[in-house]
Amino acid sequence: MHIRLRLPADLDACVEALAQVQATDRYPVDWPSDPGGWLTPSDLTSAWVAVEDGAVLGHVGLTRDAEIVRLFVTPAARGRGLAAHLLDAVRAATPGPLKLEVSSEGTTAIALYERTGWRHTGTTRGRWLNAAGEPALLHHYTSP
């Protein structure tokens, strides 16, 4: 497994990986009409992929305001520490603190962040709806 910067040629494989995640976890809750665009928000500065044997196993992005976005690992590749490795790649490439938000439904992700030293800084309601159709409860974290 290798983590590297995402290339434009990786986008289709990233969408395929995201489809696997969405089918298993409902992340994102609603499948976007343009999944490639969803993976490439306008404020994205960089993105990384975890790749093995030519397949994208995971993805993470970073925005201009140092926020981690679009972090996911395919179901078949879980349990290998890929999410932590992806976060480490972003931290190694980015000076200063990072931030992220995670829905309260993401209990596995929350456990990862807390286990790896991310600090909970607050909780708010999102502008999007969770799987129950209510405004998502978002937990905010900063990097260790």
TrEMBL record:
Top-level taxon: Bacteria
Keywords, comma-separated and alphabetical: Acyltransferase, Transferase
Record-linked Pfam families: Acetyltransf_10
Cross-referenced InterPro entries: Acyl_CoA_acyltransferase (IPR016181), Bact_Acetyltransf (IPR050832), GNAT_dom (IPR000182)
Domain N-acetyltransferase: 1-144
CDD domains the UniProt entry points to: NAT_SF
GO molecular function, one term: acyltransferase activity
EC number: 2.3.1.-
UniProt protein name: GNAT family N-acetyltransferase
Organism name: Nonomuraea salmonea
